[in-house]
């Protein structure tokens, strides 16, 4: 897979290093000469250019890339790079970094963005995830399709504790993708049961999140029993 990263700062270089270790081709683009530190990521290709300019992106052969990552520290630049990558070069996957939470609403498919990553939001979500049981925590937003990666730790009092995955009538537009049980990561099958303390990861439409949380968190009382 070929990946172009706009922004060769600490974030861009770190992403590049991870991708290179996984066997991908990486091109780092930055317009600041001081950011071109070939010795720090020697396996990557480097281009001193302004990623907001069509001529620069032509030189980068962006049409050959499977993924473009807009990782600069400037939200305006990340939006422009994303839009150009999607509309001018038809890049299949565009990922953009959100630096300021107040700008997060802009980072969607209208700007060509498939996945927006907000570091402040992600950090707060991880804090919530670590201390919350029974509450739905949004970890990541996928711009296309209005879907989110969400997590819920199944509480002991959940009505679904001990229920097989295949027996659960999940809300529409939701998919259980992973069960984390202690140190194990499970790919859920119909015969797997849901156990108290399981961390459940879903991809779900935002409109279904409340319904999903209610399904997992509330133990229903028998009919005829008053509260």
Automatic annotation (TrEMBL):
Family annotation (PROSITE patterns): RCK_C, RCK_N
RCK C-terminal domain sequence ranges: 137-218
GO cellular-component term (any): plasma membrane
Keywords: Ion transport, NAD, Potassium, Potassium transport, Transport
SUPFAM superfamilies in UniProt: NAD(P)-binding Rossmann-fold domains (SSF51735), TrkA C-terminal domain-like (SSF116726)
Molecular function (Gene Ontology), one example: potassium ion transmembrane transporter activity
Superkingdom per UniProt: Bacteria
Domain annotation RCK N-terminal: ranges: 1-117
Protein name: Trk system potassium uptake protein TrkA
Protein species of origin: Streptomyces radiopugnans
């Amino acid at each position: 897979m070929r990946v172009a990263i706009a922004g060769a700062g600490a974030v861009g270089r770190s992403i590049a290093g991870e991708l290179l270790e996984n066997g991908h081709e990486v091109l780092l683009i930055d317009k600041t000469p001081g950011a071109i530190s070939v010795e720090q990521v020697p396996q990557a290709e480097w281009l001193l250019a302004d990623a907001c300019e069509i001529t620069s992106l032509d030189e980068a052969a962006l049409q050959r890339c499977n993924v473009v990552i807009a990782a600069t520290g400037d939200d305006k630049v990340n939006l422009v790079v994303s839009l150009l990558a999607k509309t001018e070069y038809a890049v299949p996957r565009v990922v953009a970094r959100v630096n300021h939470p107040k700008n997060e609403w802009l980072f969607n498919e209208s700007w060509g963005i498939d996945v927006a990553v907000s570091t402040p939001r992600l950090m707060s979500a991880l804090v919530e995830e670590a201390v919350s049981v029974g509450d739905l925590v949004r970890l990541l937003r996928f711009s296309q399709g209005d879907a989110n990666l969400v997590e819920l730790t199944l509480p002991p009092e959940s009505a679904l504790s001990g229920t097989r995955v295949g027996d659960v009538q999940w809300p529409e537009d939701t998919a259980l993708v992973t069960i984390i049980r202690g140190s194990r990561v499970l790919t859920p099958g119909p015969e797997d049961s849901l156990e108290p303390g399981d961390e459940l990861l879903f991809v779900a439409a935002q409109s279904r999140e409340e319904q999903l949380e209610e399904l997992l968190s509330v133990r229903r009382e028998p009919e005829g029993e008053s509260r």
